[in-house]
Predict the 3D structure of the following.
Amino acid sequence: QAVVTQESSLTVSPGGTVTLTCGSNTGPVTSGHYPYWLQQKPGQAPRTLIYDISDKHSWTPARFSGSLLGGKAALTLSGAQPEDEAEYYCLISSGGLVFGGGTKLTVL
Amino acid sequence: EVQLVESGGGLVQPGGSLRLSCVASEFTFSSHWIHWVRQVPGKGLVWVSSIENDGRTTAYAESVEGRFSISRDDAKKTLYLQMNSLRVDDTAVYYCWHPGGDHWGQGSLVIVSS
């Protein structure tokens, strides 16, 4: 199975913009990997923000967007809010499902 | 309210077995792949196993292949994970996840310890 890499931690200022990325050691992340982005806050189950690169659930705030960028999946947060402070996981389909190690996003 | 309710976790000795159940309510259970995901407290999410909506196609992480078995009973809206030959490193919170609508169980803690 692939190894999926994410930034271990990032910090963004309130109202600022940040991009989280998700790479695979097997090559470029593509639409065929159906990348997901999940958010998890302490003590809670994860919830999906983005699926299939850029599709959103009804609960996904408009400030979150997904894309493919330079061979990686990317999650961009534009206009960060304090409540966006959380752990973010990338998930791809590659010989089964593979999660990245997670990015701890601090809004400060 | 849509729910996935898990049960079956607990303390077991190395080499022992447990069966997790995940019961769904109020949504179309049968129309999607369903997954088990685990998480050691304070650590990241790890995929464990998946089963297709036909119930015939399954997939497992290498770390559990040959020891765990996933199954589903759509009439009962229940997903199962039979865990055999449990090891200390199987200790984690286990979540069932139904991506159609993004339904998650509350998590079931499995502790493998002597």
Remarks:
- Chain B touches chain A through 19 residues (CB under 8 Å).
- The first strand of chain B starts at residue 3 and ends at 7.
- Chain B has a mean pLDDT of 92.
- The radius of gyration of chain B is 13 Å.
